[in-house]
């Protein structure tokens, strides 16, 4: 359903993604892991065209775009089939919770206010925040804001949702509620691309795990193949360092 | 002794030209706002060459005293036009005034709008872009509503400056309040200067007060957005604190 071919992104002379090929099937949850600065965020942002790739192409159901020759209409079509959930939530500050979820439905999908409102309430119910619908984002906790931003994405019924470290900006005690919501989204059959440092969560939720390093895909496979049986030295090194750091943290917290 | 009776006597003749000041004010503030949006857009988009020209333009309007700008516009503009082959026979002082004040207001406002625009976080742009808003939809629905409350106080200031500056337009011969005042002064052989100037001061006070009130109303309308910046919740928290303190907690 989603195919990337030879995706290349460069910032000036610095090539960050050096030819990424990937195929995602409908309903799959694909998780990207890898060291910091490897290009995971850049990869997700490219699918949303928030970064401009220097080469490659993307196919998403019936939209096919060659990045080099993408025009404005292509970009809008691509963006309207995808939805991004940001690390920093990025809720519209001047709109209430329910207005946040409604606005794109009205502006982009040309729904009536009533339709958009009903759909929004439905989605807010799913993320457990219907009772907060008339509040402004600044009054919500980070976890609640992130759940609203997930509702905002869901309300547009995109083909795929892109999550970029959705829990990294949260206080530890708020991570759980957001992961729970993402899990529900995954269960509902939504196609998901996820970047996360929550390895345990990735192991549980993913249909496929992709390990990236320095702008390349090193390997991809089932969670078991990557987390337990990987023979790649870089993957094992990365996971070893991750678990060690986690242990240190656990000890420090005791 | 202040001759209040005289002040009341001259008020009608001053009021009879008030519309000149008001029309010039409204025209140059409206045109100035329009132009400033254009100038700000050019500078933010960093349009090649044009952007530098705008920087120069703003620097000029901010540096040169407004009286000089009025003179330059009144005498210089027809000359400039004649150099490119357009000959205007009667370039009125009022037109020169509106043009000069428009440029001046636009230059000032652009310095208000640009930082206000840049104060909107990148994440707000990206959220809208990512969901598939067109640039126009993004601007009207997401960005502008966040820029306006930030820019309003600065716009209010610009308006007050504009009001003050209209007191200089008689220097190029516009028959406004100050123009009439000068006629009155010379016809009363300088006997009532204080009364005349005081009456005008009160008139300007009234105009500025109305403008301030209008801006204040706009600000109040925009205040609900402050909520999103966390200002209102803090107020509420403070009130809560006060209640707690009163209860002796
Ligand atoms: N706008 C930008 N301009 C210049 N360089 C950038 C920009 N955005 C990202 N980079 C660089 O691209 C590389 C990849 O960044 P990216 O954010 O995609 O990594 P990441 O895998 O998401 O890392 P992390 O796990 O820390 O989030 C980094 O070296 C980063 O410095
Ligand atoms: Mg990242």
From TrEMBL, chain A:
Main location: membrane
Source domain of life: Bacteria
Location of the ABC transporter domain: 2-239
Cell membrane is among the record's keywords: yes
Membrane-topology descriptor: Peripheral membrane protein
Alphabetized InterPro entries for the sequence: AAA+_ATPase, ABC_ATPase_HisP-typ, ABC_transporter-like_ATP-bd, ABC_transporter-like_CS, MetN_ABC_transporter-like, P-loop_NTPase
Region forming the signal peptide: none
PANTHER family, A to Z: AMINO ACID IMPORT ATP-BINDING PROTEIN (PTHR43166), L-CYSTINE IMPORT ATP-BINDING PROTEIN TCYN (PTHR43166:SF35)
Protein's name according to its UniProt entry: Amino acid ABC transporter ATP-binding protein
Species annotation: Bhargavaea changchunensis
Lineage: Bacteria, Bacillati, Bacillota, Bacilli, Bacillales
From TrEMBL, chain B:
Residue ranges of every copy of the ABC transmembrane type-1 domain listed in the record: 14-215
Subcellular location: Cell membrane
The keyword Membrane is annotated on this UniProt entry: yes
Membrane spanning stretches: 20-44, 56-77, 168-190, 196-218
InterPro entries in alphabetical order: AA_ABC_transptr_permease_3TM, ArtM/GltK/GlnP/TcyL/YhdX-like, MetI-like, MetI-like_sf
Membrane topology reported for the UniProt record: Multi-pass membrane protein
Main location: membrane
Keywords attached to this entry: Amino-acid transport, Cell membrane, Membrane, Transmembrane, Transmembrane helix, Transport
CDD domains from the UniProt entry: TM_PBP2 (cd06261)
NCBIfam families in UniProt: HEQRo_perm_3TM
Family: Belongs to the binding-protein-dependent transport system permease family.
Record's protein name: Amino acid ABC transporter permease
């Amino acid at each position: 359903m989603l195919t990337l071919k030879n995706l290349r992104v460069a910032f000036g002379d610095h090539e960050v993604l050096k030819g990424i090929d990937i195929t995602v099937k409908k309903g799959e949850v694909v998780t990207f892991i890898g060291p910091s600065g490897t290009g995971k965020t850049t990869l997700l942002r490219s699918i949303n065209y928030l970064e401009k790739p220097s080469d490659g192409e993307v196919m998403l159901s019936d939209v096919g775009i060659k990045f080099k020759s993408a025009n404005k209409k292509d970009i809008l079509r691509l963006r309207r089939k995808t939805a991004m959930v940001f690390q920093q939530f990025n809720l519209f500050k001047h709109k209430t919770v329910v207005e946040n979820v409604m606005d794109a439905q009205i502006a982009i999908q040309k729904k009536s206010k009533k339709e958009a409102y009903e759909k929004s309430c439905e989605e807010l119910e799913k993320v457990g925040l219907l009772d907060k619908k008339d509040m402004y984002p600044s009054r919500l906790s980070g976890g609640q804001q992130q759940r609203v931003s997930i509702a905002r994405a869901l309300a547009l019924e995109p083909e795929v949702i892109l999550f970029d470290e959705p829990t990294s900006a949260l206080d530890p005690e708020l991570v759980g509620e957001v992961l729970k919501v993402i899990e529900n989204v995954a269960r509902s059959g939504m196609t998901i691309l996820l970047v996360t440092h929550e390895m345990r969560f990735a192991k549980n939720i993913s249909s496929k795990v992709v390990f990236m390093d320095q702008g390349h895909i090193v390997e991809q496979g089932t969670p078991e193949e990557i987390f337990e049986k990987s023979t790649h030295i870089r993957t094992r090194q990365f996971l070893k360092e991750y678990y060690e750091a986690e242990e240190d943290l656990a000890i420090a917290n005791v | 002794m202040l001759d209040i009776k005289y002040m009341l006597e001259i008020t009608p003749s001053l009021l009879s030209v008030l519309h000149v000041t008001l029309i010039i004010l409204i025209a140059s503030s409206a045109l100035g706002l329009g132009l400033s949006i254009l100038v700000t857009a050019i500078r933010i988009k960093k349009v090649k060459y044009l952007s530098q020209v705008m920087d120069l333009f703003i620097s000029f309007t901010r540096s040169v005293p407004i009286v000089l700008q009025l003179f330059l516009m009144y005498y210089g503009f027809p000359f400039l036009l004649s150099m490119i082959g357009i000959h205007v026979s009667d370039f009125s002082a009022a037109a020169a005034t509106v043009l000069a004040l428009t440029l001046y207001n636009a230059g000032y406002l652009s310095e208000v709008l640009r930082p206000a625009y840049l104060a909107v976080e990148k994440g707000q742009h990206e959220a809208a872009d990512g969901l598939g808003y067109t640039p126009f939809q993004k601007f009207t629905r997401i960005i502008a509503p966040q820029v306006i409350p930030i820019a309003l106080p600065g716009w209010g200031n610009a308006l007050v400056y504009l009001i003050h500056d209209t007191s200089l337009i008689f220097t190029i011969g516009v028959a406004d309040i100050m123009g009439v005042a000068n006629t009155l002064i010379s016809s009363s052989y300088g006997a009532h200067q204080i009364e005349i100037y005081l009456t005008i001061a009160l008139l300007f006070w009234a105009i500025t007060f109305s403008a301030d009130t209008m801006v204040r109303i706009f600000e109040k309308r925009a205040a609900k957005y402050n909520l999103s910046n966390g200002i209102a919740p803090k107020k509420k928290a403070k009130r809560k604190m006060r209640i707690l303190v009163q209860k002796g907690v």
